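Collaborator request, handled under Task 6.
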Amino acid sequence: MNQVKALQKPPLSTELNELLKSANHVIKIEKGTYLFQEGMEATELYLILSGRVRVSKVTSEGNELSLRICSQNEIVGELTLFTECPKYLFNCIVLEDSEVAVIQKDALEKKLFENTNLAFEFMKWMSDHFRKTQTKFRDLVLLGKKGALYSTLVRMTNSYGIETENGIFINLHLTNQELANFCATTRESVNRMLNELRSKKILSVSRGYITIHNLQYIKNEIQCEDCPVKYCSIE
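Structure tokens returned to the collaborator:
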């Protein structure tokens, strides 16, 4: 059976490779540990070299909202740049054993002032990142619980989808609670909506892995605009 990943990670640009070279050091971090937590003093940014981490926010009600999953070539902790007395705004937990390059915030700010090419590349990356975040929050606010789940499934297929004879297999293990965290809803609501989709044979779930059999149905339900994949992903 031929399997093709829906989304391939682009290589680092020359300028962002220079950013990697400026890293203070490289560390290995174990699954289940935090790279940083909300409210901690922010003196470093991190470039993911291998593995995966999840960026999330805890609401005032104590619920967790998962914002994105970051893997190779992704930067986390970037929102602390050019701010006084910076503190991390989110939590970043390690999903699998990972390796990250540690970049000092002050050193990066200096490089961005001195190197216009690096500053331009970083601005492009930040622009793409903000647009991706805006589309996610648009879906959460405007489409309701059902739309939030459906748009999350579309993003999952773009980031981790593998085409098979049976449909698009999402190569990421997810509990219903973890999926609910991406949708800003409850596990019970996700259970109900997934059961509805299973009864219609739109998707199937096996041991925490989802296969989408009719992606177009899900897209039609939310009037999907077919945004470019780089903006419509879970990463």
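The cover message to the collaborator said: "The mean pLDDT is 83. The first strand starts at residue 4 and ends at 5. Please let us know whether this matches your experimental observations."
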